[in-house]
Amino acid sequence: MVPARGALFHFLDVFQRKRPQPERQFTLGGMLVRMEMIAMDTGYPRLPTDTDNGLLLILSGPSGVGKTTITRGVERAIGDSVFSVSYTTRAKTEADTEGVDYHFITDERFSELLAEGAFLESADVFGKKYGTRKRWVDEQLARGRLVILEIDVLGAQQVKDKMPDAFGVFILPPSEEELLNRLRNRKRESEEQIQKRFAEAKREIAFAKESDVYDTFVVNEDVETAIAEAMEKVAAARLNRA
Ligand code: 5GP
After folding, report:
1. CA 81 to ligand 1 centroid distance, Å
2. Nearest CA-CA partner of 80 in 146, 14, 16, 142
3. Whole-model pTM above 0.90?
4. Chain segment 1-13, per-residue pLDDT in tens
5. If we measure between CA atoms, which residue out of 205, 210, 197, 214 comes closest to residue 174?
6. N or C: which end of the chain has fewer CB within 10 A?
7. What is the whole-number distance in angstroms between the Cα of residue 38 and the centre of ligand 1?
8. What is the residue with the minimal CA distance to atom 10 of ligand 1?
């Protein structure tokens, strides 16, 4: 019995040493942290909080529709969601925080990143460039998170072409007149700029309805109701894709 057990343990020992070791552990501030390689093809260290429940959520809508409020509402309400902070060449305003709302970069840096293939999608919006970093999105999806992209329709089309499993939500205003009122009430732009945004909004809405980029539409009549509706639809999409 004893030699046999010894042989078995010897075999297991050799077997273990030959196998690729998928787990690593280290201590951080006295806490033991275990990391497991998620899968050989992603190469991201697996964290104890990771799941296989990743979903890419595209949220779009015309300027003034209340898209950012809805996006941030969904982000706050869904525990494992993460917001993709885009790269842009537009000027930072007083309302913006670097690294939270956007990564503000120069035209030159944007062109470098584009040439390196660092963007999952990119587009020119109102004469400025915007792009989503591919590496970050891939890693967050591999961790099982709900990854939120708040991007325009052209970017959304690129994402959907590359990642058909992405779930697209388009936010609509209750009416065109109401959208125009909201654009004016923001008091951010001149009447000329407002009219330009309004014309662009109408084009975006028409595109969103005709294309197959968006899986669903949410009308933002009341913001809390719109957030709840978007969350319900996202939860259902996650269940369907699981
Ligand atoms: P704003 O500069 O007003 O924050 O955003 C202008 C527009 O650019 C919005 O429609 C917003 O959704 C879009 N946008 C923001 N980030 C990205 C991005 O990374 N890619 C694309 N394609 N559009 C973006």
Report:
1. 19
2. 146
3. no
4. 444 544 443 433 4
5. 205
6. N
7. 31
8. 152
